[in-house]
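Below sits our specimen:

——
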Amino acid sequence: MKCRTARKQLSSKRPTVLLLMATVFIGVLGLICSQVWARSKTLALATNAIQPISASQTLDHRGTWVYAIAVSPDGATLVSGGYDGKLRWWNAQTGTLAHTVQGHGDAVASIAISQDGQTLVSGSWDNRIKVWSLETQQLLQTLKQGDDVKAIALSPDSQFLVSGGTGRRLHIWNLKTGKRIYHVKTDSWIQSVAFGPKENKIAFGDDSGRIEVWQLADRHPPIQIWALMGHEDSVRTIRFSPDGRTLATGSDDRTVKLWNVSQGKLLKAFAGHMDAVRAITFSPDGKILVSSSHDTTAKLWSAATGNILGTLPEHRQAIWTVAFSPNGKSIFTGSSDTTIKRWPTRLKN
């Protein structure tokens, strides 16, 4: 029943005995309607902040959980992976499914696209990392990690690949040759990895809550810059800011934290999720941080102040993955409700 119609019908009742009840009901109805209207409005954020609105597209992931998504540098293609081991290529603008490839024998846990838009890399619980042509979907090579692959990341120049998983080792690969060139031993499963945008810095988080940052040196073993117990539970997601100065981490302890990359100093801690944080990403300008959670929501934060700017509430189950379009005009979220949602954004001038 529409709010305006309900008010009109109830107000037209003539019996006096209903007058008091009608007055109370109309008041309550008005409050509900105003709340619904407020929720449906575009969120009013600070100047130059990004404003999310209701999801404009919902992509059907064919009945399987969505664990990973990535957007091509030109913003034209979205690739997703999930529980069924398949990789799906989508038109990122129209939401049309373009190609489906049976990429792995188990769930696809992580996806990365090279900055030149030529290469797609996928990591799976089947212990394998596969390298694909983004344009043709052709399999180029297969790397065998030897344990469940939880996370992968590409260097900005696409020369190196870093991966981690249940084998308690960080693996560093030469992507062109497909050879593993270094590894770093850890005490716990590696749940998240990231490559910095410059200087070949690598970061990872593990099941114990530990965070480590390493420097990849040319023709030399990687050098540890710092390591600390950053969270009280598993570090599920980790990302560098676009300028490479800040590291963001999200954890099963329900918090998101920002760190100084050079010193390992805690800059800010964000609390607002009601369950484990599964994924985080920065906007292209680095001003907005988006986090997604098992609590079925994604939240937008100001990277500068730590203030929460809004919530994307329309998924019915855990949101495992989140990505910005390269131009910052869309946010994509993937969930175990077997959908991908696109959230248009705009800059407030």
About this structure: The two ends are 37 Å apart (CA to CA). Residues 52 and 345 are 5 Å apart (CA to CA). The first strand starts at residue 50 and ends at 52. The longest helix spans residues 19-40.
